[in-house]
TrEMBL record:
The keyword Kinase applies. GO terms for cellular component: nucleus. It comes from the Eukaryota. This is Kinase-like domain-containing protein. PANTHER family: OVARIAN-SPECIFIC SERINE/THREONINE-PROTEIN KINASE LOK-RELATED (PTHR44167), SERINE_THREONINE-PROTEIN KINASE CHK2 (PTHR44167:SF24). It holds the Pfam family Pkinase. The keyword Thylakoid does not apply. It comes from Mycena maculata.
Length: 394
């Protein structure tokens, strides 16, 4: 009779598309990975090289050794791969490739290329992830590959100063306003869909699967500059649920969709509540960003909230409270959010902006060491007159 561990392993196998215990034990390719391996020669013809794991004839580096495949650079990624890293052959630039089923997500390609074309692509207020190239899949006209920059999570590495976090808030508010100004609602702008270009912060690069480590994986942690030293640009990604409208007068009405943040008041149902009604998606976008800041900077996430909590961001609370109002008519528009945030930003002293961001979970010794390093940088930045808020974006 199978044990609980056997059942959990079987469920994980199904999730990763793994067909046999042998594949799981020895780190073989999952079904989602074989798509990339089978089309690696075509992608190479298009000018993009995949890692050795996804090339025909790949031989596992741990065969005949005692190495753990999960600790090898060509080991299994442990996730469903609709998105994969690659290197653009002509200039060795790191990129990511996203597989899109245009039969189901036609607008993702349309909206992404819309913001990456013409004058919109060069607009400094545009924080939509750039589409560098669109590849039409040769075997299926419904499959498109979007080529985008290789990005990393917006909060990794952690923010060093309040000025860095303030720059982040400003960029993301600006990016949402830009989308709304062009009648596009993101409809899923939660923390999972906010990334940053860390290429300037990590001049020696980092491993695409384990971004805290060097490119050669387990030789050590990737070295990086702070955001103050090498300011990044933040991006809104994933337009699979986004909608574009001809006009916002009258406001468009849409039924709720299953997105990452399920706390939107318009979507909540109780036992005696009436059936859900169509809602304006633009105030919902404002809620998403407000709740992202509330969970990641003010209160912490619902689970393990103490460990996730950051100190000192109370100056954002009045704006966040309004952005997350239960009544969508009382939420500020994206334009109003940008205006109100500018007032908040201008009210903060240089001392506050240069202060270190502290987590509630910071332990004593690492926290003290981090504080010493911070003060060294702080004094140096003051002497060099480095701006308190990063201004030159990567």
């Amino acid at each position: 009779m199978p044990t609980e561990l056997d059942l959990r392993s079987a469920r994980l196998d199904r999730l990763l598309g793994i067909n046999s215990n042998q594949d799981r034990d020895f780190g073989g390719l999952s079904e989602s990975e074989t798509f990339w391996r089978d089309h690696q020669p075509w992608l190479e013809e298009c000018g993009y090289m995949l890692r050795p794991r996804y090339r025909p004839g790949w031989v596992r580096s741990w065969e005949g050794t005692n190495k753990d495949p999960w600790h090898c650079t060509d080991g299994p990624p442990g996730r469903f791969l609709l998105v994969l890293d690659a290197v653009r052959i002509r200039d060795k630039t790191d990129v990511c490739l996203k597989r899109i089923d245009t039969g189901k997500h036609k607008l993702e390609c349309e909206i992404g290329t819309f913001f990456s074309s013409g004058s919109l692509a060069d607009d400094p207020e545009n924080h939509c992830v750039p589409i560098l190239e669109t590849l039409q899949f040769p075997d299926d006209e419904k499959i498109t590959i979007l080529v985008m920059p290789l990005l990393r999570k917006y909060s990794d590495p952690r923010f060093d100063t309040f000025g860095e976090a303030v720059d982040f808030f400003g960029q993301i508010f600006e990016g949402l306003k830009f989308m709304h100004d062009h009648n596009v609602a993101h409809r899923d702008c939660n923390s999972n869909n906010i990334m940053m270009d860390g290429s300037k912060m990590f001049p020696e690069g980092y491993h695409p699967v384990k971004p805290k480590l060097k490119r050669d994986y387990y030789s050590g942690r990737a070295r990086f500059y702070t955001r103050t030293q090498r300011p990044p640009k933040y991006y809104l990604i994933d337009f699979g649920l986004s909608s574009r409208y001809q006009t916002r007068n009258p406001p468009p009405l849409e039924m709720g969709i299953e997105a990452g943040d399920k706390s939107v008041p318009e979507f909540q149902l109780s036992e005696n509540s009436p059936p859900p009604k169509p809602s304006d998606p633009f105030p919902i976008d404002v809620y998403y960003l407000g709740n992202m800041i509330r969970q990641n900077f003010l209160e912490g996430r619902p689970i393990f909230s103490y460990q996730n909590r950051l100190y000192g961001f109370e100056f954002m609370k009045p704006l966040v409270d309004d952005m997350t109002s239960n009544d969508p008519s009382k939420r500020p528009t994206a334009d109003e959010v940008v205006e109100r945030f500018a007032i908040i930003r201008d009210s903060l002293s240089s001392w506050k902006l240069r202060s270190r961001v502290i987590k509630a979970s910071d332990s004593l010794f690492p926290g003290a060491l981090r504080s010493v390093k911070h003060w060294y940088r702080r004094i140096r930045f003051i002497l060099l007159r480095v701006p308190t808020i990063p201004v030159k974006r990567a």
